[in-house]
Design brief:
Helix content: 25-40%
Distance between the termini: 39 Å
Number of helices: 8
Radius of gyration: 18 Å
Structural class: alpha/beta
Largest sheet: 6 strands, mixed
Length: 239
């Protein structure tokens, strides 16, 4: 079983290495591949690349975001809008793994920076994807994005099924149809952390919108005796 998917992997410190940089050989390989598997840039529609150089430059120039979630600082690599939203939806809904590197590079940089500023022995825990999303994709987008950013060996929180709250499992509405108060009530108690007693944690996820799920992750770590020193996300909705 891979370390990334083991429920107790959070007891280990994540491995952080600098991601490899693009090379002329890689550019040539993509050009040849584009002859056989035509793609268009998701930003401007130019042929042969999932994201052309100009749109990559535009992505790199976009500002990072900082906000608080459950009293903890959250660093987000991007604001969740426009091109960033498109890339993440292509990755999560259509399994476009070819867009992971431009997003994961800055994500990994933020995680490594959080670890560098945290006490020795700090571990990285991921907020797990929904069960439905995991079944549909067959992979965890956060694991892929972290790997593209040079971060491996992370652990994850566990999802706990809580019935009787009117969610999809009980025939009720999903999160998108709920009010803010209903989302909080339906989320509390749905995540659990193992093996983090007395440890410092960097908590990571792909997208933070209302912050309810990330806040539940913070609660779960605290309930298990750990301390979240930083939250990091690929993208955040500006509040």
């Amino acid at each position: 079983m891979r370390t990334e998917d083991h429920p107790t992997a959070g007891t280990r410190t994540a491995e952080a290495t600098a991601p490899s940089s693009p090379t002329p050989w890689r550019d040539a390989a993509f050009a040849v591949l584009g002859l056989f598997l035509p793609v268009e840039c998701l930003g401007c529609g130019r042929p042969d690349r999932a994201l052309c150089r100009a749109c990559r430059a535009d992505l790199a120039a976009r500002p990072r975001r900082v906000r608080l979630v459950a009293g903890v600082r959250l660093d987000a690599a991007f604001e969740y809008e426009g091109l960033v939203r498109t890339l993440l939806l292509e990755l999560k809904l259509r399994s476009r793994v070819d867009v992971a590197r431009p997003l994961g590079g800055r994500f990994g940089t933020l995680v490594r920076a959080a670890l560098a500023e945290a006490p020795a022995g700090t571990v990285v825990l991921r907020v797990p994807p929904s069960r439905a999303g995991a079944r549909r994709r067959g992979f965890d987008p956060v694991v892929l994005l972290l790997a593209r950013g040079g971060v491996r060996g992370t652990g994850r929180l566990r999802r706990v099924r809580v019935r009787g709250r009117g969610g999809p499992a009980d025939g009720g509405p999903g999160q998108k149809e709920r009010t803010a108060i209903e989302r909080v009530a339906a989320t509390v108690g749905t995540l659990r952390a193992n093996g983090v007693g007395g440890r410092d944690v960097v908590l990571v996820d792909d997208v933070v919108t209302t912050g309810v799920t990330m806040a539940e992750g913070v609660r779960a770590v605290r309930a298990a005796g750990g301390r979240v020193v930083r939250c990091v996300a690929v993208a955040s909705v500006e509040d």
